[in-house]
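TICKET #2291
ISSUE: user wants both folds in one file
ATTACHMENT 1:
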Amino acid sequence: MASPGLTEAPAAAARGAFLAGAATLAALYVGNNVPSALYALLRTTFGFSALVQTLLYAVAVAVIVPALLVAGPLSDTVGRRPLMLFGLGAFLLGDVVFALATGTGWLFAARVLQGLGMGAGAAAAQAMLNDSAGQDALGQRRASRTATACVTFGLALGPLAAGLLAQYGPLPRQLSFVVHAVAVAVVALLVLRTSRPARPAGARRRRPRLGVPPVVRRTFVIAGASSFLAWAVLGMFSAVVPSLVSGLLGTANLAVAAGALTLMIATSGVVQFGAGRLAPTAAQASGLLVLAAGLALLVVADEAGLAWLVVPAMLGTGTGHGLVFTGALHELTTVTPPAERGAVIGSYYVVSYLGLGGPVIGVGLLSLARGLSAATVLVAAVVGGCCLVLAPLVFLEIRRRGAASADDPQ
């Protein structure tokens, strides 16, 4: 009989690595959306414009993308843990700068640090989850579902917690960043304790590169296009929806305004757990249609001044985002070879973050001429139209794959 230590120790190491990867993803994504609940308060405190508000959100994305270009593939070579620790450390420093801010320049510096932390840590943490889950289909699905839960529920918890702390706690501008900094420090200690080998199985010593191997390229194009639009909606909502909802509802309560964003993202998380029976490509196609419907409701709510439509609009966009995200990420992590996983996931995050930040800048620029509300509605209409164009193309891909399977002699 084999010694217990020979079987239990690797299993315990894998469990520890899985937990560390999940906790890192959750901590990073909670923190990424904490400022979303506080933009109205920060605008009052520092007196910046709607354009600056959107740029504050987008500047983190401008840092995340080049960081991913390096950190995603680098984790395939030097290991997941060093990149995760660097990312957590940068994000903690960003929290500190936010808490100590005395002007708008401080806020931009904090967002740069947070973007660096996200770019360095997210892809490595996602890859560690998949590395430690086993290479069988069940393990990879568990890793994908855990990652999507950490990302979406983390993004939902961030604004809700920040809104509640700012509205009902002391030091409304600083408290949420202090609390998050403490949580990040705890997660960093957890990552330090993991005994998982630093380099993933099958990795080779090579110059880090970002890229998509030919075997998954067609899958990546479909998943990337769908995810770009889904994350464009999330980015736009995270940057401006609390302010937009405050105007529609006529309230200055930070917790209520942040609750609309939380509802949208939490709905996405719930949908991801209920979408397991859908094929990944079918989830993406149907998600695009639902996403367009939710955006249409938001446009109607603003144009007609119907505040009650905010709830179904948030439910619709959340459902669409959840279907697209869970389908895209599960499909990519399943078909990608382990030794290429960091590079492919890094590439996927680059596309997603371009969606997360690009349309937000468009909202900010349009707000100079049209105002924040009208600019948001216009960009929402454009993104919704793109969803309606892409969805039939994804359905055609499903049909093509079905025909290819029927023609396969095996």
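ATTACHMENT 2:
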Amino acid sequence: MASTNKKPATATTSKARLASIVKSARDTMRKDAGLNGDLDRLPQLSWLLFLKAFDQRVEQVGETLDPDYRPAIGKGYRWQDWATDRDFSGNELKTFVNDDLIPYLADLRSVGGNADDPRNVLSTIFKDVTNRMQSGTLLRDLVNLVDQIHFDSSDDIHTMAFVYESILKEMRDAAGDSGEFYTPRPVNRFMVQQSFLKLGESILDPACGTGGFLVQAYEDLMQQVDTDSQRMRLHADIRGIEKKPLPYLLASMNMLLHGVGAPRLVRENALLQMRDATAADRVDVVLTNPPFGGEEERSIVGKFPKGYQTQETSWLFLLAIIDQLKKGGRCAIVLPNGSLFASGENSIGARIKQKLMKDCNLHTIVRLPQGVFAPYTQIPSNLLFFEKGNPTEEIWFYEISPSDERRGYTKTKPMRVEEFDSCIEWWGGERREGREEGPSTWRVLAVDVEKEGHNLDISNPHVGEDLVHHSPGELVEELLKTENEIIGLLKKLHTEMIGSGE
């Protein structure tokens, strides 16, 4: 195999040019019989993009800055060694990728157990990577297209990140059919903003998916960075856990494109990882949208204390997160209405909420409109914000309603960032000062929640005041919506009762 040993490319890739290359790449992949739909094509493109970006952003930059830099990928296996060799025919390339490259990358080992060693990320990714393309000729064409993309300057990275976000959105849309609910960008941006992150804080998303919360947190905190040491500390403080190989690959690529060469991502069952964690593993901030509606295997459930054992994933995540936080740590988490509803002394959900309010100050619940997570689910959801260390005395609720011109959200008309503006203004800054009750806000005392069996599914007490202004059609629509919510909650409660043996 020939090695061109080319110098790093100096060309840049405009947004229009990049979009054109990505379109050509996807058209090329559509011709291959081994790839079926975006759930095959987008991962194939992502691991190739990852290797190209890794070579330019990590290896070549490392060699430029440090004469003693030791590349993570050995000679002959770096992108510049094989991908740029145009004499490497399609069939030869396919054989090399399948039999040599992927096994080599999957078997990489970090030096001295160094957590910052990018070999950790490379080996974890490529243990689950398979070249699904059957045509060596089409693979050669695809590699040639990816090689036209450049990652030399910050402008290049920004451009690629922008286009990659659109790829991730399509990936999320495709994954939604298989039960993966990804957080819309306006929601994770709001949750990160209202968590008031600071440099030096450890930040974890235990269900990181494609890395949306982590990238948003990183972008926000990079604005506070002044030195290289602060930047390196930030890289170490942004952490994620993801169980499935495909989202792990996409999250790693997402972080790499935003400048993190060795992302602190773990491919593991987050519940198992958090239950086995020590006090030294606790973090300052958790930002997450855990899976809900699923059931965990009994070996995982058995890791939790008796009295809190349930197969409902959202309850287990909430319980694990409480233990994962340092004293004074804080969390912003997405939970469905059903999780807020469960009440009664014998309800596991109620006991977990009781622990939450005893160990943490659950200061704010933001109630999202129905359809925010469309097209994945119509289940209404909530954003809970709490701090560990002091018990809850009162909970503020803020209900966000769709603007007047829209009655809900769809895939083509998602929630907009500005729809959180009024809530941000009401919030009262980091200390939550000056909050007042109004048509969309209300306050509930913790003692009253306790009397109601720790039911947190508390409706807006002001909503009835406005009913006289609604048309008959709107009232019927609201009644139907409420009826569907009640049916969903009853089903959820019935499932939980069966699971607890009641």
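RESOLUTION: both attachments delivered.
EXTRA DETAIL ON ATTACHMENT 2: Residues 218 and 238 are 7 Å apart (CA to CA).
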